[in-house]
Amino acid sequence: MGSRELAERMSPGEATQSGARPADRHGLLKHSREFLDFFWDIAKPEQETRLAATEKLLEYLRGRPKGSEMKYALKRLITGLGVARETARPCYSLALAQLLQSFEDLPLCSILQQIQEKYDLHQVKKTMLRPALFANLFGVLALFQSGRLVKDQEALMKSVKLLQALAQYQNHLQEQPRKALVDILSEVSVATLQEILPEVLKADLNTILSSPEQLELFLLAQQKVPSKLKKLVGSVNLFSNENVPRLVNVLKMAASSVKKDRKLPAIALDLLRLALKEDKFPQFWKEVVEQGLLKMQFWPASYLCFRLLGAALPLLTKEQLQLVLRGDVIRHYGEHVCTAKLPKQFKFAPEMEDYVGTFLEGCQDDPERQLAVLVAFSSVTNQGLPVAPTFWRVVRFLSPLALQGYVAWLRDMFLQPDLDSLVDFSTNNQKKAQDASLHVPERAVSRLRKWIIFRLVSIVDSLHLEMEEALTAQVARFCLFHAFFVTKKPTSQIPETKQPFSFPLESQAREAASSAFFSLLQTLSTQLKQAPDQTRGGQPWTYHLVQFADLLLNHSHNVTTVTPFSAQQRQAWDRMLQTLKELEAHSSEARAAAFQHLLLLVGIHLLKSPAESCDLLGDIQTCIRKSLGEKPRRSRTKAIDPQEPPWVEVLVEILLALLAQPSHLMRQMARSVFGHICSHLTPRALQLILDVLNPETSEDEDHVVVTDDSDERRLKGAEDKSEDGKDNRSSESEEESEGEESEEEERDGDVDQGFREQLMSVLQAGKALGGEDSEDEEELGDEAMMALDQSLASLFAEQKLRVQARRDEKNKLQKEKALRRDFQIRVLDLVEVLVTKQPENALVLELLEPLLSIIRRSLRSSSSKQEQDLLHKTARIFTHHLCRARRYCHDLGERAEALHAQVERLVQQAGRQPDSPTALYHFNASLYLLRVLKGNTAEGCVRETREKQKAGTDPSAMPTGPQAASCLDLNLVTRVYSSALSSFLTKRNSPLTVPMFLSLFSRHPLLCKSLLPILVQHVTGPVRPRHQACLLLQKTLSMREVRSCFEDPEWKQLMGQVLAKVTENLRVLGEAQTKAEHQQALSSLELLNVLFRTCKQEKLTLDLTVLLGVLQGQQQSLQQGAHSTGSSRLHDLYWQAMKTLGVQRPKLEKKGAKEVPSATQSPISKKRKKKGFLPETKKRKKRKSEDGTLAEDGTPAATGGSQPPSMGRKKRKRTKAKVPAQANGTPAAKSPAPGTPTLSPSTPAKSPELQKKNQKPSQVNGAPRSPVEPAGQKQPQKALPKKGVLGKSPRSALARKKARLSLVIRSPSLLQSGAKKKKAQLRKAGKS
């Protein structure tokens, strides 16, 4: 910090004068580490990091504007301009520009001079030429971006000269210096440009038209200083006939330069503006653009023409727009849109949409130009089909007047198509086609009409909230009229009849109009926004359309339907209108609005398919009258006519029939209506829905016909279908080749035994197969061969027909299956509505097993996307809306016994499933039923349960408290789940899992209390049940819900039982041989720690003496397996338990510690020490250690009670008299007998520091030294260690004082002399 403060106080001048320049430099580097990091961040590729670093650098320099940091920053940024990393150069250039912009006192000439000196182009090496060139270029750009270059005349002139010098290195910089020069000169003042212009622009027209940059500089001068340019160059006509080819070449070069950037070159737009200024736009567009660039067959040039077209739209008048939008450029654009279909091909359509959207948004006050542009783009057609999409978002920018004019133009083109006004074209493949039917006008009219009708619908779809109501009504009436009605005689009351067709309306166009009308009806009837389907009169759009259709039907002399109505169908229509009037009396009810919607939609469908909708209308009207007029005494009505089904069942059948139609509008309507009638649902009505969903019965059902929407999809996609047949034919040929291969495979697989027998009989009849002596027989004649060939041909033809019939039948079955799955997915909407709006309905309980059967089947065969969708939707309804619902049935009635049986059945099915995911659904269903039974109160159920419990032998099973008021039979469900739990614990591959039972225990703790004895029993069982039981007990004992079900004595008794079981398991701790046994030991220790934690939280007192003895007895076996795989976790859990018992874990000795091994190691430690080492005869003798450890008589010295000679004073003080301490977890004992611990488990454990101080130095590897040494070993001579070995109690104060005195009187010189003697002995031994 001192050097940093010093560097901040000293200025550069003071540092130089005092001769401390090197010190200041080092001080700068020391205190400015954050400052130096700014330059690293500036070069990073992330833009946010670069900007943040630049801002921090400027903020840092603002506080030190005169310091050495400024010089270093300039030097570092200038150096960064020429770094090897190309991505870092613009970053340093931008940072330098911002620095120069922030500190205006920095002279630009000085900075430019530093750049030129740093990167001198005349002295730089050849290998560094490219970085030097870019450094000079980015340096000039930095000066320009600072905004100060145009104000500094001297720096500007030097920069211009430098750019002119850089322009000569075209191989490295290409046209970048010239572009930079043009950008700079475009910002300078007129006077400065007049002064600089003679130096930068040559007075040669050939040079001016040689490159885009020179031409752009010329155009800049012509715009700013035309008088000076005229004096310099003279009068120049760029659009003359001799200059047009050179202009085309310049524009081609400009197009190539922006090929990767995909943008419009500035030179092209400048030429366009110049042509408009000189009133030469038609000549420029015809000769330069259409006959020049467009004829080159060069895609970058074509894209330049397209971009020039889009950019020119705001600049042109209405007459000029007509010239541009009906020429070759827009026709070529249409060809590009039709042919650019492959994914990797560049598509210009999105870019053109942006151009058109920008134009329409910018000229809101000029609806005529808006309408002209939109009509022009809609008139670009490929054999009658416009290339613009039907759903074009640019219409949102249209003004109301322009929108009305566009809708009117679309209607007029639908009625009287003007093919001559279209900019029509054909692709190359279409031109090569020899089919004359592709070029007839009727086909073009049909394609145009289909596109127009869908275009009208898409306009309403995107703008129906902003459109005027009258305009929306016009479009809806237009679609309805031309979809279902035909004009017989025009009348003034119906404006649609006054518009005749120039071409007859064909059936395909009428079908497209019908499909588009229902799509429009869906848009107008959507309920996603606030009342969008309501008109100003308060009635829905469908009501007004029905009224309009009734008006048309009443004018039968002027209008007739496409499909004429019979008398019965007309009566159904009139009854529908009468029912609508009756519903108006119940308009306050939400159910009446849903019925009205249903009646209106089915009534409109009467126009499309009268025969099918007539019966539905009658049934719907009957159901509506019954539902709205029913009284609380419905049983009397049923008694009068018991054969008549309830109205809700009839209505459910109608909704199922409507769901079979591929209409999203019908699907929404069915959901809405069913949501209002599901409260009246009967078991029979629900069974009608379940019959569709049940896989066993739905495979053969025939009462519901599922329709296919392929025709409608084909009609909807007709307007976007192009006739580019080359790619289609190639893809078809590939499909045919693949089909032929598959046919060969199927042909080989479809050959049956009957065909083989027929083939053998034909060959034998033709004598083509002979016996053993067939070689001697004569060959067949020509006639016989021809007959045989004919027989074989007929046989194989019949076989091919049979194979094709089987294949068709297979495809038909697959298609029917797909339609059936789609139908089931739509019917699931009704199930979702039921469980969402009526979760308390008892009928919801009937949905469990059907949904589970769908899930079961889909999990087994969920290969197709439809099966996946069906599975996901069913699982979502089952899990989120049913099992996790907050509300459930509270009125079971007589269903309690059946639900108990269902719980048992579901649990048994869960145990028999092949996998856990399927079993989880069944188990969750049983938990849901348990919640329902537990939450219901029924006196009969409680009375019956009490009688069963009184008859039983277990009086403790009587429900008490809230359990006594529920329908749940605890004895029955306990027996069910105990069986499942036993199966889970004993069965090897059980689909049940631990989380399933944990969910059961947390939701139903009383049931858990009854199941805990099973878990405790299996704690000491075989390996796998023991492991699973321990895992379950670990989580269960920590649950608050389970603890609340136990009284304190019961809980303590349970803890004691579990502790006894765990203690029994731990007697074999450390003897694991297999992975399963090792896992069982881990789970036992984990359960033990959970017990300790629970007892600590509950403050329970348990006798842990036996457990402590067992754990201490297994310490040696654990140490033997200390290096086995996975033993570290086992040791951690073991010592965690021992720490709770008051025994601390010993600290491991370091591997590099040079300690003399004790001579009194236990046999076990010697054996483990010797394992894996070389024999004694192969060992290399370590003379130093031998000399240091052998006594004079040659016997090894006992190092357990002596200290090494190199031990210092502090370490010698640690060898004072010590109490018998714990070593490696063995508690100190008053008697030398091992294995009889006297430590109480409740005794607080000592800290590791205290244990380290009290540890005896004579204990190694956990084996305490015996007071009696083995035979053949010399007893230690020193008294201090010997006292520690005896294991006596702590000494008195007098003894400790004497020990301290004995340590103090030792002289360090004696130790040093002893060390010298040992070194001398080592030298002598080495010489000898």
TrEMBL record:
UniProt family annotation: Belongs to the MYBBP1A family.
Compositional bias ranges of the Acidic residues kind: 733-751
GO MF annotation: an example: RNA binding
Signal peptide per UniProt: none
Biased composition (Basic residues): 1165-1183, 1208-1217, 1315-1328
GO cellular component: nucleolus
Organism: Rhinopithecus roxellana (Golden snub-nosed monkey)
Subcellular location, record wording: Nucleus
Name of this protein: MYB binding protein 1a
Region (Disordered): 1-24, 698-751, 1145-1328
